[in-house]
């Protein structure tokens, strides 16, 4: 009687779909791009992803295509929008905006880190296609989606607001972007930013008049 092996046969894992493989490579590459810029080798990225270097070039035409995909992923706001949409609307507006500001800070930090790493090596322009006005369509889309989620945070208080939620969301987003620029001296805290946005610069209510 023939002996049978008690060791179960090994099954090969199902191959990844091309989009899944590209996403996996980009996820492994992003922190390395932030750390090393565009000088990071595809061999280092392959080791981080646990794949052979040749797999990268089956997924991407060349290294520039991979860097462009990393920039597109950094701009993509899906996770940020999901976090903004999960903010509880039954808490005070100040608490809502403070939480939103923290979420947006994380998004802009990630975007700035990747863009800064590529710009330092002169690779940013090749990684971010521009429209006729010189602005990146992906970047504009990346700002539009969070802006809509921010507007929803203002809506529960719209009866007490001086402007429409959409206009306030636009102004709040611009304020956060300006305050979060790299190298800003003595940057405002999140709480200070929200307080300044909601209550203004004056210590007392009323219109400031230099003639009085």
Mean pLDDT: 83
What percentage of the residues does DSSP assign to strands (E)?
under 5%
Count of helical segments?
A: 10
The stretches of 5 or more residues where confidence is low (pLDDT under 50) are 131-135
Number of domains: 2
Radius of gyration: 23 Å
- Tell me the distance between the termini: 108 Å
Main sheet overview: none
Which class best fits the helix and strand makeup? Answer: mainly alpha
- Percent of residues in helices comes to 55-70%
What is the strand tally?
0
The dominant shape is: elongated
What is the chain-wise order of helices and strands? HHHHHHHHHH
Quick tags:
about 210 residues; mainly alpha; Arc Repressor Mutant, subunit A; 2 domains
Show the helix and strand layout.
Elements: H1 18-36, H2 42-49, H3 53-59, H4 63-75, H5 78-85, H6 93-120, H7 124-127, H8 137-154, H9 165-179, H10 190-199
Explain this structure to me?
The protein is 61% helix and 0% strand. It is an all-alpha fold. The chain has two domains: 17-75, Orthogonal Bundle (Arc Repressor Mutant, subunit A), CATH 1.10.10; 76-199, no CATH class. Helix 1 crosses helix 2 (42-49). The chain is elongated and about 65 Å long. Mean pLDDT is 83; it is low at 131-135.
């Amino acid at each position: 009687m023939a002996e049978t092996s008690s060791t179960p046969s090994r099954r090969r894992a199902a191959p990844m779909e091309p989009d899944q493989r590209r996403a996996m490579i980009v996820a492994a590459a992003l922190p390395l791009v932030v750390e090393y810029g565009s000088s990071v080798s595809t061999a280092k990225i392959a080791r981080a992803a646990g794949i052979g270097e040749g797999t990268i070039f089956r997924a991407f035409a060349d290294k520039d295509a991979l860097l462009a995909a990393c920039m597109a992923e950094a701009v993509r706001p899906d996770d940020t929008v999901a976090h903004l949409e999960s903010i509880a609307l039954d808490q005070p507006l100040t608490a809502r905006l403070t939480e939103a500001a923290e979420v947006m800070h994380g998004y802009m930090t990630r975007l700035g880190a990747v863009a800064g790493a590529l710009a330092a090596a002169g690779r940013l322009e090749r990684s971010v296609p521009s429209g006729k006005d010189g602005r990146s369509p992906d970047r504009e889309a990346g700002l539009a989606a969070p802006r809509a989620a921010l507007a929803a945070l203002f809506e529960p208080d719209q009866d007490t607001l001086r402007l429409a939620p959409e206009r306030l969301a636009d102004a709040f987003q611009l304020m956060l972007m300006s305050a979060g620029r790299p190298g800003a001296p003595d940057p405002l805290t999140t709480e200070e930013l929200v307080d300044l946005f909601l209550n203004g610069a004056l210590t007392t209510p009323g219109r400031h008049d230099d003639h009085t």
